[in-house]
Amino acid sequence: MTETPPDRDDADLDLAAEVDAAMRAALERPAPRATYRLQFNHTFTFADAERIVPYLADLGVSHIYASPVFRAAPGSMHGYDVVDYAEINPELGGRAGLAALVGTLHAHGMGLILDVVPNHMGIEKGANAWWQDVLENGPASVHAETFDIDWSPLKRDLRGKVLLPFLGDQYGNVLERGELRLVYADGGFRIDYWDTPFPLDPRTWPLILRRAEPAVAGALAADELDLLEFESLLTALERLPVGDDVADRESKEARQREQIVIRHRLDSLVARNGAIASAIAGAVTVLNGDPDDPASFDALDTVIDAQNWRPAFWRVASEEINYRRFFAINTLAAIRQEALGVFTATHDLLFDLLADGLVDGLRIDHPDGLWDPRGYFRDLQRGYLLTMLERTFERRGIEKTAERRERLVLEIDRALAGHEAASPTRWPLWVVGEKILEHGETLPDDWPIAGTVGYEFAQATTGLFVDPASRAAFDAIVKRFTGDSIRFADLVYDMKMRHLREAFASELNVLVNELSRIAGQDRHSRDFTTADLRNVLRETIACFPVYRTYITTEADDLPARDAAAIRAAIGGAMRRNATIDRSVFRFVERSLLRGGEGDGPLAGALTRFAMKVQQLTGPVMAKGLEDTAFYRFNRLVSLNEVGGDPGRFGVSIEEFHRQNRARLQRWPDSLLASSTHDTKRSEDVRARIDVLSEVPTEWRAAVNRWSRLNRKHKTMLEGALAPHRADEYVIYQTLIGTWPASGLPAEAWATYRTRMVDTMVKVAREASRFTNWANPDEAYEAALSAFVTGTLDRRRGAAFIADMDRFVERVGPPGYMNAVAQQALKLAAPGIPDLYQGTEIFDDSLVDPDNRRAVDFDRIERLREGGGPDAGAPPSDPGWKLALTQALLRLRQHDPELFRRGEYHALAVTGSGADHVVAFARVLDGRVVVVAVPRLVTGMMGERGIAWDDTRIELPALLGATPLVSLFGRASAGVEHAGGRTTIAVGPNAGGWPVLVLVSRDEDGGARGGNTNE
Asked: What total number of domains does the chain contain?
């Protein structure tokens, strides 16, 4: 029920009118037209980006789309390990550098979109002050509720502590080698483990200072003030409040103030009194022990045991870790955005940047990790409007008051609720969420955002260029060459089960304990054993068909989509486990389904349980599917991308059109992606690998031939040749997708070879089949590296390299054409196209960190200045993609509404090439753009390109006799009006270009927008 705002009459403001006006103004701001993703780090800063702004403006993009810019862990190459949300990363140029970049953007009519990481923070090497405060003070920390920590785990010796699985060996071994070093500095104590500092709780400092007390007393007179100060400090430290005495924020802040004073007093005392400094240094030296005397570490062990943290061997993390992580990464700790104070502290600077006009929109990383994604997105919209209004009031000299702020929030909620009731496609703040949609899944309609980051578009366009008729042939090729024949669905289940047993055992234990408490409160379920509950819950999560559900505390009814997903998971788990008691499955099902009903004595516990479960199903899916199964199921690796389903072999033209129509209707301002920082292979690499689906017989023969040629590069390990054929099969696909279009100089070839080695080692570790991240098999990895190096050695691998050259001469040209076609589809389809850095030309990037390599913008600029490609240029000429990209971006710039609101018409194609063309038209108020791209054309390729023969596109009747001209400067040809239909020939209009783009003429007879001949 919506709360009624107080009386809107105000002596100086009509808050309702102010809010409504702010809403209208925000909704009138245009969404981005096209974005260009840049990866910032200390090697590519704001100043570096500023230098390429003129180029990007001329290219035709409207916004830079920046990787995270808040202060990250020192040296971070990606920015997703934020350590301070209140500061712009100084390694990138800080606030001043950001302001300078935005000033340059604005001078060129451009803006900035930020990638924001709300789910987790980096906690490595002591760089996160909030985390360090938690370690120092435990539950008494003012940030104890910031991080998602279980302060009351089942294991008693961890209660009130944080497990820190950062040690490289068993704790006792690390301690007795002297690797945990007690340090005094700046009025406090800490334990250093190499370059990672762990602060000591001030209440435990007396364990150290009492050891120094005899030396202090012996050096100073009994009535000396410094001795009295020393004793006073000991008393103050021992009287610091703990437990129930620091249960609220006010008492925690009071303790924090007292600690600051104590630290300053101790620092001053040590600085002025050499005897005290010497005594403390002596105590520290004794406590640090002697590696030749294990017993000498007993006292330090006692000090460490008294802390709010417990250092542990990193291998124990999966079983006992008691803070939620991003996936299974120990150095990324999840935070609780559902807590108002946490949201405020992590978003104040962000809202300031938005209010100051430095930032125009947001990309939200991993919203599925949040407690309540919809609630978080709503908080973003509310916070944006609130900050904008308060900034407006400040400019008008209106005093800020807590009462007015409270009433303003109520009015904003009223306005947002009214806006939501109208089922809008626009919201005040342009936000997209990194939501991964499984096949058949749609974005929740009630999320107040513009759409997704575009993974589903990437997988659709990749699948378009895969020949579904070759599925059986590829199944046979893989089975015969590698011996693998497992179904993809079974592989995903197996990998999710593996990660639940290993990486997420601790998270599962927390849920099982909570479920056991719930079961014990009902006589019908109290006899269920913990083992049964663990097995059933684990099986259910492993069978979850989507990343997560969206049950919330506010929901009156369980969403139908969520109920269906839960029942599907339970059903799948039951089918896989016929021997487990069905009543336990039904209990788990009822517990999850009742999570959002909001009534009954257990309603609160059930809701919390269901919401915690859905925070785990996403990471398990990600680790099992994206990070493991995608690296094992290698039938056609171009399909193994985020949001994809390698179990499906290709996407039909009809399905592609359906997705575009749905996006235009509901999410017209969603992003369209083809390459991202998360893609395992760039859009162009995937486009080239796709061609293999068109030549299964040739591919099978080539793989067998190459395997024979390269057998000499394998290593005998434990009676078998390494690398395994499963990895060898991936190597050949990777080479097809990245093979240089022309011979490389020796230095460049060596760099290419190193990239292939590094990528394949990562692929093998992710697959966790013959080696892995936790226990790298050095012998296998050496064999794998030697194999790749040998095959790409221009002397030892000469025969293979020559054979690969010949094969790529066959499959390379249609692969490059696929790449240009994908780009045309992205730039003209409903949605906002996003270009990943450097992908305006052909890009051969592989999984990170390979895709974070520096982009040679000088080279791209030279290519652009050289004009479009010559008519006889080979398909591998990067000028094709660059010219098309600029032409279509400028067309969008010339007529943005045509691409945002224009009707989408799938166009019928007739003739011998009917199944080899994807065509559609965008139409708005008589303005038209027609796009047609080739697909699956390897068999149609000749010396003069594609033989289109009688292939024609049928134009929609609503176009009438609208004159069309090629975007590339030619009048349309081969137009026929017969039988009430208007058709146009593909061949004459393509004119040697890989794609066909026709636009309606302006009244003066020119093409709307730019063309490549201008």
From this structure: 4
